[in-house]
Design a protein that fits this description.
- The protein is mainly α.
- Helices cover about 70% and strands about 0% of the residues.
- The chain has one domain.
- It is elongated and about 45 Å long.
């Protein structure tokens, strides 16, 4: 794998990891007693995954 592509993949993985960690923190801190993602939250996560190329 070319070095620039490897750096791009690594950066996307780091960004995704941070995004997922932030979302998990938000869910843990939220007062939502249903313990389920709302539609908007699920769509936001799916959009981020798609933007990073994980759902293409």
């Amino acid at each position: 794998m070319p070095e620039d592509l490897a750096e791009f993949v690594d950066e996307n993985h780091i960004n995704l990891s941070r995004f997922v960690q932030d979302k998990l923190r938000e869910l843990a801190d939220s007062e939502n007693s249903s313990n389920e993602l709302g539609d908007d939250e699920a769509k936001e996560i799916a959009q981020k995954l798609e933007d990073l190329g994980y759902l293409n």
